[in-house]
Amino acid sequence: MANHSVHDFKADFFHFMSPPILVLSGNLQNEFYWNIPPHRHEDYSEIIYISEGECEFIINNRRYLGRQGDTVIFNKGIYHQEMSSKDQPLNTYYCAVGNLHIEGMEPGFLIPGHLDPIIPKNALSPQVHYLMNEIFRECKEQEIGYRSIVHNFLNSLVLILLRMIQEKYKLHFLTSTYTTANMIRDYLDENFIKDVSLADLSKKFFLSQHYISHIFKDEIGDSPINYMITRRMDEAKKLLLTSDQTIADIAGQVGYDNPNHFSMTFRRITNLTPGEYRKKIKGNIITF
């Protein structure tokens, strides 16, 4: 007996604030010595799919290794460097995407800046490979209507990548329960090292300072400013344990121009000075 299944085409909570536009598409084949010095793109984001080989990336001074099937995302304005392996050829598809603005993220961002920009190979990777290949092929052949087809493929590519990001990180803004408080929290996660005030949040989100404080406290459980301070302290703890940087350098990296102010805030939160925290916690770590 045949099965008949019908599904309503319901409203989608997701939408682009502005539709992405393809700037360029390219294909790198059998490259052993691909080495691009540090640079950034001020006008577009970049997507790279590694179809074969390996490539080392330095993104915002952090090293990453991309392997076959991985997808790499460079948000607009992010410094990055690319170096292929000398032992095996590198094959990639890449495209530059302009006018990208996804609700809940900064313009030009496809992935929140505090997350790893490399999406490991998973079940959706073959779709990324297919779409990147088709975008490149259409741009190369330029048959009738190719621009419309390319931008349909590009929309699909961005959405597939968002599904992959959501699967890995469970981001709030990619769900139907995403609220204004979630949006403010994600903005603070992106900008906690800056001096963001309630007045700044009010101007950005077109809401009163009182209303922002109320909804944020109600949904997130703390005030926006205290949340931002907590994010700074969490980042400082990580740097204290994973680097040999001075307290002053760490203070600057988490948004404090005055190291003394940083140390006093850190002690108020943890009951330890940064130096005491580093000594105490590192002393309890056993290495193998």
TrEMBL record:
GO molecular-function term, one example from the UniProt record: sequence-specific DNA binding
Coiled-coil region list: none
InterPro entries hit by this protein: Cupin_2 (IPR013096), Homeodomain-like_sf (IPR009057), HTH-like (IPR037923), HTH_AraC (IPR018060), RmlC-like_jellyroll (IPR014710), Tscrpt_reg_AraC-type_HTH (IPR020449)
SUPFAM superfamilies per the UniProt record, alphabetical: Homeodomain-like, Regulatory protein AraC
Domain HTH araC/xylS-type: 182-280
Pfam families on file: Cupin_2 (PF07883), HTH_18 (PF12833)
Record key words, sorted: DNA-binding, Transcription, Transcription regulation
Keyword presence, Isomerase: no
PANTHER family to which the protein is assigned, alphabetical: ARAC-FAMILY TRANSCRIPTIONAL REGULATOR, HTH-TYPE TRANSCRIPTIONAL ACTIVATOR RHAS
Name of the protein described by the UniProt record: AraC-like DNA-binding protein
Organism: Cohnella phaseoli
